[in-house]
Amino acid sequence: MKRRIKVINNRKSKRIFFADTESFTDISIKRSMREYALNLAGKAGFNDNIMILAVSCLSYKSRLKLVETLHTESKESKSDELREEMFYEEAIDEVGEPDNLGRTVMKYINRRLNGFTMQKTGRIIYSYLEDEYRGTAKGEGSLDKKLNQLGNIFNLSQNDLNILKLIYLAYTINNDHLRNIFDGINYSEFVKLAGTATGLTPAEIRRSLSKSGTLAGCGIFDNIDHTGRNFISIDDTISEYLTGISGKNLIEKYVRLERGKTLKPEDFSIKPEDTEIITDILKSRKPCNILLYGIPGTGKTEYAKTIAAVSGERVYTVRYGETDSNDRGNTSDRIVALRVAISTVSEKGGILIADEADFLLNTMSVFFDSKSPEKGWLNDLLDNSRAQIIWITNRTGSMEESTLRRFSYSLEFERFTEEQRVSVWNNILKRNPLKKYITPQIVKELSQKYEVNAGSIAASLDALKQIKNTREIGEAEIKPILENLLEKNSRLLRKNIKKKNRLNELTGKYDLSFVNADMDLKIAVNAVKKFSAAIKEKKEAEGINLLLWGESGTGKTEFAKYLASESGRELIIKRASDLMDMYVGNTEKYIAEAFKEAEDKNAILFIDEADTFLGSRERAVRSWEISHINEFLVQMENFNGVLICCTNLLEIFDTASMRRFNWKVRFSPVKEEMRVPLYEKYFVTENSPITAGQKRRIKSIKSLTPGHARAASRRIAYIDGEAVDHDTIIDELEKEASYMQIRKDKRVGFD
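Given the sequence above, the corresponding structure tokens read:
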């Protein structure tokens, strides 16, 4: 069989086989091609392409007999002897080239030469074709076996299989003769011609080719466009399977039996009652759909493998072949993989884990285009699957409500807190011989620094154990080696490695007296202290919401740090970029998680750039902007802690949000009488006094802020000491302050 690669109609390259029908060894292909030729010739009549197909379906021996019969017929018609011999010589030479022989016969018919007519000559060829079809061996060929396997896996009807076979033979395994008949036609033309070839009615063909049909819904067809030509294509994986190119059957390619070691349920920060319910559902052995969802890196996959193993069943996972887990364009490939896996588990028994199911479950995503399968396939699968499936996804924001209702049980995996990571470490270490080397202090430090899940912790400890078995390592080496392992794991998984957080540290030169606020800040400090004491004593207390607003550098963030320091509470700082996410629903989730983290830790929550979430709803132009504002307001209402919001843009704040703040404090540049003391705090030493003229210059800097002093101090720290004097420093401060004035003038001009 001759093989070559060819590009068809600007689609991606397909593997196509060119040969006449006789060269195919698969009896199911021979029989189908001859059946198509008989039906097309008998019902549609002969044209050039159908004639070539019919002649190509004859064996070499039959073509030789056909030429002899036509030659005899031309003699009996008493046509021109010279033309008779010309036909015979030409046709005999072309017996081995059926396409050329077909063209020659059609040429004589069209020109009415040698007594050839469509009726008489067509009847002769049709009779030879019938004999050839009747002589085709019976039995199930390789192609039919594979098609029947697909039928069992995807629950295809016989009509579906007949249409799939025709499209496969016309567009994938191609002898050029069948392809020339079906190539370049539109959907309506195909329906009519396919009905003629297969004997199916137009309604049956349309049903099989509809976007809501099984062939499209299970991913066998990766493109159906009823509006134009080249309207259909078979998924490459299915084509490769049917042709035998891949070398693997579908089960080997898409289903993996898990044999590795799993963790214990108690190694995860999951409530025991949740684990018990999931285990009971799985032990029932009844079909079910369980959903594990939440942000990446929280241990969903490890937990799924653990809980499935605990249920006493074999555990299978869906493999998506060569599909990139982030490739949104391969949804049809994923559907094929999923269907194969479900069929396998339904037949063999066990529990199936469908990991990385985001693009399968989130069918409302904007990334699904009009050529994607109809979304009803998913609900149909959830309703009719005979398997126990644990689905894993990072997001649910684009899942249909009708889909969400179909899960037997759902469990959200939230971002680990430091305390939860400590608990996971301790649970895993209970059974580990390295426990005696890893002290509670080391566990605490590693939990603070590395945001890893149970699987990563267990893997790092296993690696450390292997190293220790290979060579003698001292107790002092344990922590550095473990940190090295955790760091590499974190970088591989793109997890945060928390270094000492300078953002949360109060500057050493901070002095509340330099802050120019429109209220006595000590009142706010005392209020937070009283609230903290009440919470510590478990007394009833209302939460405190502070809004700090004003120009950049006026001390808003530093005051939040000072407040945390004075009240002895941790400060959690979240910027807008920490909470915003591109996926629908995730921003709301991160907002809720920030409030929950602060409440769990009894920490002060500081939201910088709060105008991102508290801007006026009247200014919002997208629905998700309003959703973010509403979520933030709901969390504020229910938060029983200390919330500090910071903004430079008070004028765009939502009026409803303004009412929710106990105090709204304006921060302004340093007062005139405090400008020189601020300068002296940062830049004056016993050996470098300032002159009266320099003091006047400092007092005249109207927009001077503590932030300007700090920025200038950092900048001159790297300049050669001899090149820096007070006049140079004052120049720098004047320059810094002028930038603020420029911004202020621009804002006024814009308004």
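Residues 89 and 146 are 43 Å apart (CA to CA). Try to locate this feature in the token string yourself.
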